[in-house]
Amino acid sequence: MIVFTEAAGAAVRSGEIHLGGRRAAARAIPYAGDAAPPLFRFDPIERRFVALREEAAVAAGPADAEAWREALSDAPGGPVAVGPCSPSEPVYGAYRAAAEGALSAGRGVYLIDPDAGALPEGADGAAVAVVSWRPGPMPPSLAAAAATGMAAGLALPAIPGWTSEEAVLEPLLSEAVRAGARFVCVLSPAWDGPARRAAVDARACVDPGSAESFFERIHHTGSDAVIASAVASVRAACASRGLPALAPRARGRGEPPANARAAALLEERALAAEADEHRAAMLHAAVRWIDESGRDLAPLHLEGNLRKVFPFGAALAAEVEAAISGVR
Length: 328
What we know:
This protein is an alpha/beta fold. The chain folds into two domains: about 1-240, TIM Barrel (Alpha-Beta Barrel); about 255-325. It is about 40% helix and about 20% strand. The longest helix has 17 residues, at about 225-240.
């Protein structure tokens, strides 16, 4: 049995997270606790499988968009993530309220696993739906989000011996395209002992006959090179279908267009440079600076003053200037 209670207020967790390469400065949690039918969901933030339980206690946040807007007012600058949703959304309405509160605060919003009835109206490019992959049929929330016109896509882990295999990957991508996916966030899975055990359990849930061979394979494929090869394979398969392996950046209504373009470009460069940890970290730090500076970079660029205030060197400043000018 799932027991729902009303949370004391809007739960917002500040602290940078990444959704397949896109930065979120905070996370609004409309429902505290994972509870649903006995399936597995791949959490795109933790990058591991989460077991959805039939018996749990879940705290539902307020169905008041203003409460969420106020709770987000103290969070660092930049887009925010909202979710995941809950089967109780028709009763409590916390997810939609959190999304609408974030949008009214001028934030770009990444909607994690929204139900059809929880989608905010008129979000345009300010909201991007990221649907977590789970073993079994494609979640209906992907098609529901895509039908609204917002950018929607799948968060897919590149798991050696499973999702990176052509026999599994090609039908999965075809199904995502039919559902209206505009992108696939290709995720490098966490690969510690508990994460591998959860992957085995998730695989056994839908394909019991493969559990033993899959167990043997993943417990002998722990190297970074194996994971990197799986990620590369999934990204190549996505590219062959014209699916970006990165979600579009959610641009808040209060965010200067030049800042959004620059931050998006730097996030894309960071993903491309992920093997170079120092450069990737520098690019992510520059995105953080843009999001938190609160200054419109376009006038600074036009006045020739951007490099005087940008603290990451001339080479990176030149990339920001190119993005502001619309040059890729």
